[in-house]
Protein 1
Amino acid sequence: NAGADAVAYVTIDGVTFDGNSTGAAPGNGGALHITGPGEVKVKNATVTNNSASAEGGGLWNSVAGTLWVIDSELTNNVASGAEADQGGGALFNDGGMMHVVNTTVTNNSADGAAGSGGGLLATVGSMVWVNNSEFSGNSSNRAGGAIEVRGEADTMATVKLEFVDFMNNSTGDAPGNGGAIHITGQADVMVNGGMAMANSAAAEGGAFWNSAVGMLTVKNVKLEENVASGNDPDQGGGALFTDGGMMTVHNAYIAGNMADGAAGSGGGILAVPGSELEIMGGTIISNTANRAGGAIEIKGSEEAHVTATINGVRMMQNMAGAAPGNGGALHITGQADVMVNGGVVMGNMAAAEGGGLWNSAVGMLAVDGVAVIGNTASGNDADQGGGGLFNDGGTMTISNTIVRGNVADGTSGSGGGILNNMGMLTVMESTIAGNSSNRAGGGIEDNAGSTVRLHNVRLLKNSTGSAPGNGGGLHITGAGTVEVVNSTVAENSAAAEGGGLWNSGVGTLLVSATTLNKNMTTASSADTDAAAQGGGALFNDGGDLTVANSTLTGNMASNGTGGGLLNVAGTSTVVNVTIAANMDNGIVNTTGTVALANSIVANNGTDCVGPVNAAGTPNLDTDGSCGSTITADPMLDMLANNGGQTATLALLDGSPAIDAGDNATCAAASVNGVDQRGAIRPAGAACDLGAYEADAAPNNGGGDDCADVPKNVLRNGSFEENMSGWRFFTNGNGGFSISDMAADCDNAAQVDIVATGNNTQLYQRNITLMENTTYRLTFVASSTSGNDVGVYLHNHQAPYENYGLALNQVNLEDGWQRYTVEFSTKNISGMVDNARLRFWMAPFAAAGDRYRIDDVRLEVVDGSESELPDVMAQSVEVMESGLLLGMDAAAFDPMILTMIDDGNHVDEEAATLETFLPLVQR
């Protein structure tokens, strides 16, 4: 006890405090109590079996005091205060300063009716540091089984916990929040390192709980096997719960936690109205919730939205149970704005809807650069499923994302990849591949009045089963509206109807600048309805279907009809479309209307079956069955990348389709004066029939001054559309910008290196290449330091294969130089659309470097495979192994290169844990 003007300094070393107690006046500090501005150091002490009738069963520190606890053990102490601000079974800090170092705090309790902080209670104004310590087996009745932190607006509490382990702490049911840590009021708590394991809360926050005005930061912490048992939908958060405050979680490992109440939500994390949640990096794995959000539940309201950002996080093998069981990884309830950037959503399960991610009717969910792979939704109803993602009426935007191998396996499960239920869904620059459903929409199901926009999307190898089995790539139920633009729909299959795309009796489907290739329906010959089924590429069940500037080729209706298009009712409008080389007929119309204009229907067995309205505008077919103005061979080339975003069937010289079209039809809204590639129509006296305009330059990006690159496989090679089509990543420190110091046209790419990383690259992905084809790559580049750049062309997803160009160390100069190389494609069968062209600055870059790249062209060259021209042979070293010459694997960070490659825009390689290394020359 120090006087008002005196400070007492006391050191207690090697002492045991055992079985001491204090009465009820007020009853604080069972073993030690500090009054006034004293500074006490307790070292190498044992504090056990002490009790206080109110606060601090072991040690109690005053508002002006400083207490150090070093290399000590505090066990079996009890504080019995009945109020919410009383307790602190082992330690109580009444606003002063407390340091706890290398200390164990075990089996202490705050057993009052509303006792808090079984191990430690820090009140308003406190400053507490805990380092390299352990809190285990502590308990409280109200909150904070291990630690309770209490603050106010004017007297915030600050607590910093570094390398602290929390194990088997618990809080009772009054109300029972924060099995390990609970924050009341305004406080700033940081937990850095350490672990929280097997803690439990009767209601919320099995490990840590944050208040409505609190700030909780969790960095580099393992949170495992914690449990929150609240029964209400807004209770749970097996590991973490934030009640409206700010929570930041960085590089945490959150595994095996549970929200096991009857309607418990958020097996790993629960954020309720008003919260601001940021999760950066880390892994959330094998968590479970009975109601929703196996990994994360975000619950907003009209009055208090939730804002959440989830960057580069791996959410894997989480599960939402059957009450009702939505959002295996992430579930949004109410009004929230959530962004998921990069990372992996893999192997999660939901009993009903959204095996991976689930969005509410008023939620906004943006998904960018994420790998959504191998998730399962098992709801049995037709409006349940969404193996990868489920949108329940809100707004969902998906970009630069892979949705692959997801399943809707319920009896009538729909939307193997995505189910959009009365919401707004936009998908851009993404791949939806290898997903499956039992009922409909192997790739995407659009249900009941929804709106879907697919732009530059690849719908590949999706399938739907036999219940009934419609829409292998995409299925519309009810009055949905869908537009598919600049996309590829290939190798999808349906057991009954619409191997590629299926439109409902009241749906609206627009297909523009899109290629549908090798889609099929697989009806059995024993199926009595097989003859009326089909539509290998497209099926219209009575709604409005418009197909413009598109290519349908190589599709099939096995044991059915309409390999290209089957229209059983409604209206199908086909304008400037090429329908060629499909099996089981090109167009079949039963009772609806098919209007054909400026189109080619050729070599489909029978080109048209049933009435087709081809009057008034020119068309071409090969057998006269469509009533076209021209019956002839259209002289089509093979399907290839002829520029633009999708593969097309070019018109060979002398084709009767050239200059045979109607200019007014080409100028109308659905065609808009361009062809499938974006090339201007007409290029000659009149526009051409079909999707391809001969002798016209495709739109590959770039302004008007750069339109003289007729067959550049790349998009925006001159950077006139800024970064469109390109992506940049560094795990060092630097940035990408568009410079007006261009070699050609107006813009150039500029990369400034502030600090070096080991994976710095500017690249373009999803490039289409053909087998056994010679290409020429040219580009103009400079480096202010003269440092070099590597150039690679390989598949975008693991396992990596060199596609013919594996070059290292192009010698740059401080000034524009043009570089050219010709090569023949390798390791390609047929055609691929998954190539990545990569300018790799690492490991050559150094701080202060400025790279500029411009006028990048990748073009098909006639002739056989060529050797490297001299200019490149002198400036390039060919790779001899999977590592850079003179470097070893230790130079690469495997976590960065495998799981968060591309700036946390993880691609399919993340699922297979392949390391991103320079490629072997083959």
Protein 2
Amino acid sequence: MTTFDAYTEPVQPQASPLRRPEALFAGGSVIGLRAASATSSGSTRTVSVWLYDDPPAGLTAAGMWTFQGRPAVTVTGPGTVVAATTDPDGNPVPAHLDLPVQAVGAALPGRAPYRLGVDPAGLAGLGLQVDPLRRHLPVRLRPECGDVPDCVRIPEQPAPLTPPDYDTLARDYAGLRAMLLERLDVLAPNSDHSPADVTVTLLELMAHLGDLLHYRLDRVATETWLGTARRRASVTRHARLVDHPVPPATSAATFVQVRRAHPNAGPTDSSFVVQPGDTATDAVGDPERSPDAAHFTLETDAPVTVFASHAEVPLYDWTEADAVLTAGATSAVLVRPRPADGAPLATWLPVGSLLAFEVVAPGPAGAQQDWARRLTNWPPDDGGGEQIRLPLASFPAQVVRVTHAVEMTDPLSPGLPLVRVFWDAADALTRPVPVSVDHSGGTPRVGVARLGVLPAHHGLLVDGPAAIAPLDPLTGGRPDPARQRVADYLLVRAATAGLSCAPGGRPWRLDTRVALPSGITVGATRVTSLLRATAEGFSVVVDHDDDHPPRLRFRTGVLGVVPPAGSAVTVRYEVGAGPGGLIAANTLTRLVRSTSPAGQPCVWAEADARVTARNLTPGVGGAAAVPLDDVRRDAPQAYAAVPRRAVLVSDLPPFATQVPGVARAAARRSWSGSWPVGLVAVELAGDVDDPSVDAAVAEVMDAVRMVGTEVVTLPATPVGLLVAATVCLTPGTDPALARLRILAALRPGRPGGVFTPAAHPLGTSVYVSTVVAAVAGVPGVDAVRVTEARRLSEPAGTYHEVLVVGPDEIAVCDDDAAAPDRGRIELTVEGGR
């Protein structure tokens, strides 16, 4: 127990013991205990006490000293002052005081250290004082035991604990009920276990509550760790911490041609307007009553007009008998059908439309040529009664997006209105398409063009009150939104088919509307995480699960806003995901449309009795959700396999090259005067600067940069080089042919050339030895001597063995007369024949 007096050793402040010991060594009326030790000889124990100065004679009195500890120890007689001497090793031993001590009752002292102290009142009678910091010393009175516990008795093994009379590991209702009843028998042996007893009813209620609480504890603890989490939403959140995406099941995609039937007589064209949300299906009746049927929603944000003449469009063969669109083609010429003469080209074939190429049977002899020369109004029928020729199965359809459409005429066919269409190189044809009737291979065939083509994805629209169900996440019950606030809803219609999602996990459609008690209806914004919830209005997030329908959440913890009580929430979404959308080509047959308003169950009807829909290509891209075991395996190391952040400046160029339109990129570290700056030089793939590409690169760099750093993008600077060489040929070598081969080995136009863009990335210097090696490897070259190697801006005659370029520069030597600033090759050929 702490005593509150002047001699209680203070804890604070702490200081090094320097000046106070010096004062005590100097002697005077203030003493202090310096050290103490105990010796034993038989039954006699002696405690030796050293002071900072020689001990006064009055300290030998037994009443001057106290020992605190158990058992009690007293000084049995007056002590003696031992004069200063030396030990057997010759070390000096200061003068000290020896005190005889003995435990009360002739017992042995305790093994624990005792607290030796001097009485301040007794010192006052001698005219002395004691230093409050050095009034006590610890001393062991059992020196034979030393510091190791060799005298400590090993306690006896305690008796085993009595096991409890109930299961302490009980977690479910049955285990908890049995435990409580057993405990009840201990407390009240005469208790009644009848279910009608009030006490038993109370115990069963507590067991039920304990079951719910333990379930919640187990669920929370299980979902806290990636290795044990079972719900897909929990695993997705864990993986998101390291930027590892976990996409849900994605919907398949295809291209659908909407065809308007044409009259069999007359050149009159007819049209049909495709509305957003129209769906192509192979269901015979109501699509919602055909769960095994394929449903694909057309992707269009605005109405699209489809003409009957779009069903088949002839390709112009330039009056040749073996015309063909080769693989890699990026343009074609169409013959405009006679029924389409009344519509402007911008209406009949808008820029951005999809154009499909298919190979069909030419039909009766001469019928294809008559139609392609506009001698007939409509294409020949294949006899199926569908007013269209079905494609040959061995020639899959190829779909491109028209970037330009130009009207033209052929002087050799002056009365034939032609339309030349272009598409990007990314959509270049992968297989040849016969333009003229091809009779090779035994089966005649010819290529045709299809318009009225729209992209589509696997998904069927659902809406109405039955499309969602409120959920209590704790109990799993169905709360009443009219009486309480509900933050979670289940998309029950997506339980089996799955929520239709685009690659990456974004739902194709998720229109959430909240009708507030005030009568105002507002929308809710979908976000990937409620951490990105908007400051105003409602935000929702979709959690996908393997065993339950997708969950729509308005709030998590303190994030998000829950609709107030009395609100009505409706959600319009599409169902259809996974491998179920991987259908074969030509599977879809009908075009249906929902005629019900938003918030009401969908009522499907034929879009038009004269309109059909057919998928030109098979469904692709429909994939099941990533297995959770794969996520648990890949997520912890995903940051190393696929970098998501640019930690170093050298990590920035790979992110820049991922932007479409960027050919090469390089980066270096710089200093702005206040903070570090990463300079990223970018070389565009095209010859013309594209501001949109520059903006996209800047956006990506800002997204991946480290906090506290700045990234600046700038265009790469091409540096034109001049390389002059003298080549000596072996006898008999053709000088003209050798020159062409040497230039081909140097120019960037052919793979493997010295100055190809891939050979010299951004900021890479050029070694003249590579030029010498390339030229020397040409057949017929006997000797090579480079006479000039410099930048175009340097003086003539300059020679560098290494042409050094900066980190934001590109060494180019195109040797193109149309671009003299991009380098030049001067070649002198000697010898040969």
